[in-house]
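**User:**
Make up any protein.

**Assistant:**
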Amino acid sequence: MESANEQAASRYRRLSALPFDAVGAASGGSGWSAIRNVFAHREMLSLLVRRDLKARYKDSALGFFWSLVRPLVQLAVYFVVMGQFLRAAESIPDFAVYIFSGLSVIGLFTEIVVGGTSSVLSNGGLVKKVYLPREVFPLSSVGSALFNFGIQLLVLLGATFLVLKPPLHWEIVYFVPALVLIVVYGTAFALLCSAVNVYLRDTQYLVEVITMLLFWASPIVYSWEMVKSLVTSPVLLEVYTNNPLTLAVLGFQRAFWVAGDAVETPGGLMVRMLVAILVGIVLLFVSHRIFLRLQGNFAQEL
């Protein structure tokens, strides 16, 4: 008969021989291993996206129709106030299509960033009780935002057919880099702000204010041509034009606003967008590294 000490020592030896599997989030680490970890938990990410969408419209009679209400109300307000009362529609043909193109872009960006910023806090129970890659929380906000954007995109396409100017031209290719710009920059800021928001809770309110300012800093209810006529400094005009959100808005307008084919736009728009995408990928990498550094103490902070 083995003594209690010998039995305990035998158990320790068997345990030490077992392979070590990490079950918690560690600070730092390899970016590629973190990406593989997220991919391994893709089913959980899909579940979180579906949960967010269902929770948003739970017990709602109209369901996903509400994802259209805010942009449609915004469209009606801006079309009447800016387009008719302030006569912006007189200088911008098919003003409704023009403004809805911009609203779709800013709506997607705002939903990704604002939703992603509060995603870790709103899932604090999961963070403290279950291990899974923390990145899935801001990424689930990206997924649900893209779903709502898809519904708005159908409305935008319907509007182009309604005015008898569907986007059946080669410039529809601008849609792809414009969408990539929004997703890359939105995801980068969602990762960064979601991590910072765990330690500094005012971040989510600051993000809401900044996204509101970005709306007015983009050519959505006014034209880029108007900005060019008002800004006398070429440097300031370049800074404004090369803002990734401005480039994405201009790209959407070139893709879907057929009436604006003859309207002046910044030269080399496609090149500007591709350069901005490369910069955004670098920003996404840096934001992810910061997220990995900060995630180690999420459970304690929550």
Residues 31-301 form one domain. The chain has a mean pLDDT of 83. Residues 55 and 213 are 29 Å apart (CA to CA).
